[in-house]
Amino acid sequence: MPVYKAPTRDTRFVLNELVRLESYANLPGFEGATRDMTDAVIEEAGRFTSEVLAPLNQVGDREGCTRHADGSVTTPTGFKQAYNQFREAGWGTLTAPQEFGGQGLPHALGFAFEEYMGESNQAFAMYPGLAAGAISAILAKGSDEQKAKYLPRMISGEWTGTMNLTEPQCGTDLGLIRTRAEPQADGSYAVTGTKIFISAGDHDLADNIIHLVLAKTPGAPDSTKGISLFIVPKVLVNEDGSLGERNAVSVGSIEHKMGIHGNATCVMNYDGAKGWLVGEENKGLAAMFIMMNAARLGVGIQGLAQAEVAYQNAVAYAGERRQGRSLTGAKDPAAKADPLFVHPDVRRMLMDGKTFIEGMRALCLWGGLLVDLSHKAATEAERQEADDLIGLLTPVIKGYGTDMGYKVATDMQQVWGGHGYIVENGMDQFVRDARIAMIYEGANGVQAMDLAGRKLALNGGRAIQAFFKLVDDECAEGSDNDAVGLVAERLAKVNGELKASTMWFMSNAMANPDNLGAGAYAYMTLLGIAATGLMWLRMAKIAARADGGEEPSFYAAKLVCAKHWALRSAPHAGALRREIEAGADTIMALPPEAFAA
């Protein structure tokens, strides 16, 4: 059976020493995030996910969800009991507003718990994860009545939520949706249409599911400018808050998928279902994007999560499996073979994995801090900078985080060799579950275009200029430690390649927009390398200052990983810049028929 232990020591390092949650105690929501409290939450989160959720991961993969003849859906064995424990412990309330029953704690702490959930059981984690996104949309755009009616029970976990965008004929291009919402005399709407790929679309975990559905009203523009957002409950809610009759919402089928089998990904049929407008008519896409952005950060964390759990299992196997001898002579002469750990190529994969994981964890948790600072920082300038940075980095966390998360998962399967291809060892599930994260909530090519085509030019390039300055300032702060100096030198070069690539877009994308489209993916990867490099420089400085401390091996490992980033990840920046500057000529040259066999 696969192993899993929540990486609580590294999380505490990031929250306490890198993000330094305690230093923001003067801001709303941070006053309770003392080091003792944060450590206690992290340790209990680690226990819950390791002991309750992880043992159900393979169960969910093998059993999947079941749609019954009456259209109801049941989750795999043990999921309902685990969800009850999740609810009773109040895990869903961590970062939610106190006025609706939440604890109002910092998002960085919530992100850490999300990571553990994804590592231990990604399919299970998606049920409360989708609800959190729906909560954020209702908080931002819902009426006071809607907030009072739905949020307390969604935050408590009594009810869950979904987001319904995709239809059979449209995915990213939501202007093509056909779902209709007809106004009714009582102020509600009759919603009719079919949605596909709806994660957590139906299940037996909660008493009600609050679907957020995109639809078009009569006479609305036949484009994205004509999209509205509606609350469509699975079970109608009476005026007194009690549950009434079943709404006209049904599950047509459960999708047969490559992975995340424990989550019910449904085809949803709306047959004149009662719905209520959220926000303004024809402004639904803006409301949905609030939910989408929250989900994109969550999906980036999923990429990190699958890398971490696959890495843990590869490390365990590399220590147990004996194969061949070290190139520098037998390390265990008494045995017939040395463990896999002696082989440089195995070490290459493990070090690449460890360096990505710890750098991305730092980036995600720092991103959680930026989410809070964008609303709660003391000054308008600080709020603006935080908002600019998290807006810029959201497609990077999602796109680069899931690309690399999948790569690490497959590399860790490679460490296992042939045994990694055998189902009972569990490595195949990590690879399959990691693959979806590159696709949903906007495929990674869409993330790249959002970054290069929209985020770079926004507000005159204010966000990317803020990032450049952040990196330059960090690199300029010297250190006597050789490893830190190397990381600063290499990060400065990466930042230079990023600046040059940005300037190339400015000079060449206006005349030929395909140049931007052709280079966007490489640009997203380049910014991902720079952002994780910034985290490694900061972590290296902390480790150097610690001078070993009470845990010399922990801080020494940080310095080695930082150096590994400088020597093994940073050099890719130059190649990515040259790829960007190659433009679109060869990519767009051939006619479609030339691609046929």
Descriptive tags:
11% strand; seven-stranded mixed beta sheet; alpha+beta
Please, could you describe this protein's structure?
The chain has 17 helices and 11 strands. It has 597 residues and is of the alpha+beta class. The mean pLDDT is 95. It has helices at 8-18, 35-53, 57-63, 79-89, 107-141, 144-156, 284-320, 344-376, 380-415, 427-437, 444-455, 462-476, 482-508, 513-546, 552-569, 572-581, 585-589; strands at residues 66-67, 73-74, 159-164, 180-183, 189-199, 208-215, 228-233, 235-237, 243-246, 249-254, 265-278. The chain is globular. Strands 3, 4, 5, 6, 7, 10 and 11 form a 7-stranded mixed beta sheet that branches. A two-stranded antiparallel ribbon has the order 1-2. The relative contact order is 0.09.
